[in-house]
Amino acid sequence: MLRTITVGTISVQGIYVRDTQDGRIVVRVGEENFKGTPIRESKAA
To answer: What is the pLDDT along the chain (45 residues), one digit of tens a residue?
Structure first.
């Protein structure tokens, strides 16, 4: 499943890997893993 996170002021979209104990999530982009704050899904208008 694709998820979007923020890492500082940058948004990163990648494949969901796991949750962390501090409330952040890890996503994979290619061979790189990024940990950041998940962006909440918005409801369609």
So the answer is: 899 999 999 999 999 999 999 999 999 999 999 999 999 877 666
DSSP-derived letter for residue 5 is: E
Q: How many helices (H) and strands (E) in the chain? A: 0, 4
Looking at this protein, which amino acid is placed at residue 13?
A: Q
| Domain boundaries along the sequence of the chain | 2-38
Compute the chain's Rg from CA coordinates: 10
All residues at 6 or more sequence positions from 34 whose CB lies less than 8 Å from its CB, including other chains? 5, 7, 12, 14, 26, 27, 28
pTM confidence score: 0.84
